[in-house]
Structure to design on (571 residues):
């Protein structure tokens, strides 16, 4: 992925304090109310709606992939595994601390801990970290996180370790191994919170001798408390990595002896099984789906069920992206925003436990949030179809008719299809037929991550990597980040917005070193983007995840919007 030099010039001094702002609205009540803390041993069963598409740390893209990945992948730093505000803080993971900046935050040094090892017992070295970062520059596969290319110096023309003898054996010059345990990053700009950046999985180490390139995605080598024992079409089985040392890892609790992750998209059946909690269901938790809507009232009104549901709010948002290339007419996009029935959508999802109505892309939990409502949806959660019809009629009279048929892409799962049906019904009111394009959930984000996809509306959600607008606006709306490679799968600007004025405003916000001023700039950008009608914010998401009677330690982690796998165990 190529980045405009204006984009590269200035992610300046976002300050570590920005990332300390908790995105989690949840309290630690869930953990405190558990009758017993987790104990070591047993097999934890985890249900996910679809098997993670990527296990290779350089290719991890979704919250579920990132959550699962921490079982086997350690990074230089990582987020704490604790309920409440502490979950938004980082600590040294493979590194002894959160990093030592110098030269005005342009150089960052990290020292690896003693006795950190791979699953075969070999030491994890600086060379492994350097190689992991270098492989993210390869064109062999689409890398999901662009941070290395944005922040590291001297990356122009570098094509990764698989071509040209890895830059003639020199590798990436901005990542240096001082010795086996000390690694130094040279940045192209001052970055005050680079310690948070290296918590992202693209900075994870990979041993060159174990790298199977594209196939590494199927079975990555472990540096964490577990290793992959088995991978099938529907299941991932993790067992203990005997070379992981608890003394070197303050984050991962690693209570279970085995963790079995199984894909099951039948949400009502999953919820029913967890409520009943017979057999293995007592040791099971639903990681990425809320309680099925038909069971919500039963769960929230039953003290015993409510006590074992893992719940809380966080900084995530559920929205629809409007493909601005396929619907270039602003008035037609505005009509789609005005007509949307948020009440019907949320009711089908389970009501207020699913989330609060949203008007913005930056959630209220973030200080960069600006309160605005340019489509007057707060007072009209059922939409304003009359306004939409007027806009469409004006375009028809101007010989610029809005499309009468649209395609909505969704992960092909029963619960999401039910929600998509409300979208179909909504737009029928204004004479638009919506065709649902169900895509295999396992590959959904790869498919819509190709800018050449032919969908008009796209089901999407977003959880910030840290608690600032810089983790929302640039990845979703900076047109300079849209990949140009024909088979790219890592685009996150699903609306394909590429507005030069907005791009320049993003650069200005990134360059602002005073936090309060930066917050204001992100809020203003959020509003300006809303005027372009390229997304339909629906709800600020909440989590209500059901757990079996024997599961303990659950809380919603703000980085994933899910129960943190690193904290879960059995009673």
């Amino acid at each position: 992925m190529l980045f405009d030099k204006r984009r590269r010039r200035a992610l300046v001094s976002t300050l570590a304090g920005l990332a300390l702002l908790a995105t989690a609205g949840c309290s630690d009540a869930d953990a405190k109310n558990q009758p017993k803390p987790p104990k070591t041993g047993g097999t934890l069963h985890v249900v996910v709606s679809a098997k993670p598409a990527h296990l290779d740390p350089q290719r991890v893209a979704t919250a579920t992939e990132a959550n699962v990945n921490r079982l086997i992948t350690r990074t230089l730093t990582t987020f704490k595994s604790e309920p409440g505000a502490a979950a938004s803080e980082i600590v040294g993971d493979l590194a002894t601390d959160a990093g030592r900046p110098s030269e005005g935050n342009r150089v960052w040094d990290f020292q690896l801990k003693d006795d950190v090892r791979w699953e075969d017992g070999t030491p994890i070295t600086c060379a492994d970290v350097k190689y992991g970062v270098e492989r993210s520059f390869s064109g062999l596969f689409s890398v999901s996180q662009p941070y290395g290319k944005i922040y590291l110096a001297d990356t122009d023309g570098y094509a990764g370790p698989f071509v040209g003898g890895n830059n003639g054996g020199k590798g990436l010059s901005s990542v240096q191994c001082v010795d086996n345990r000390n690694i130094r990053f040279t940045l192209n700009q001052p970055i005050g919170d680079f310690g948070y950046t290296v918590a992202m999985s693209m900075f994870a180490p990979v041993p060159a001798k174990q790298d199977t390139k594209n196939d590494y995605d199927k079975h990555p080598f472990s540096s964490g408390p577990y290793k992959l024992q088995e991978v099938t079409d529907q299941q991932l089985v993790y067992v203990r990595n005997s070379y992981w040392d608890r003394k070197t890892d303050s984050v991962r609790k690693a209570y279970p002896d085995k963790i079995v992750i199984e894909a099951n998209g039948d949400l009502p059946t999953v919820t029913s099984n967890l409520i009943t909690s017979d057999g293995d269901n007592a040791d099971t938790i639903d990681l990425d789906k809320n309680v099925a809507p038909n069971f919500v009232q039963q769960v929230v009104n039953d003290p015993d069920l409510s006590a074992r549901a893992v719940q809380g709010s966080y900084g995530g948002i559920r929205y629809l992206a409007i493909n601005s290339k396929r619907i270039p007419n602003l008035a037609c996009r505005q009509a789609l925003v005005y007509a949307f029935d948020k009440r019907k959508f949320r009711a089908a999802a389970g009501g207020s436990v699913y989330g609060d109505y949203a008007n913005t892309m930056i959630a209220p939990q973030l200080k960069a949030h600006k309160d605005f409502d340019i489509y007057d949806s707060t007072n009209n959660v059922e939409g304003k179809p009359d306004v939409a019809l007027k806009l469409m009629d004006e375009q028809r009279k101007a010989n610029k008719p809005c499309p009468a048929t649209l395609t909505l892409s969704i992960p092909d799962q029963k619960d999401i299809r039910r929600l998509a049906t409300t979208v179909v019904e909504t737009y029928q009111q204004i004479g638009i037929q919506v065709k649902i394009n169900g895509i295999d959930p396992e590959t959904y984000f790869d498919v819509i991550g190709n800018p050449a996809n032919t969908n008009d509306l796209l089901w999407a959600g977003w959880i910030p990597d840290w608690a600032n607008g810089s983790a929302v606006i640039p990845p979703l709306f900076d047109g300079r980040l849209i990949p140009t490679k024909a088979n790219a799968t890592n685009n996150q600007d699903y609306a394909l917005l590429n507005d030069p004025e907005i791009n320049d405003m993003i650069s200005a916000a990134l360059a602002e070193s005073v936090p309060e001023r930066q917050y204001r700039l992100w809020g203003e950008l959020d509003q300006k983007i809303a005027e372009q009608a390229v997304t339909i914010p629906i709800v600020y998401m909440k989590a209500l995840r059901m757990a079996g009677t024997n599961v303990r330690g659950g809380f919603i982690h703000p980085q994933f919007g899910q129960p943190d796998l690193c904290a879960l165990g059995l009673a």
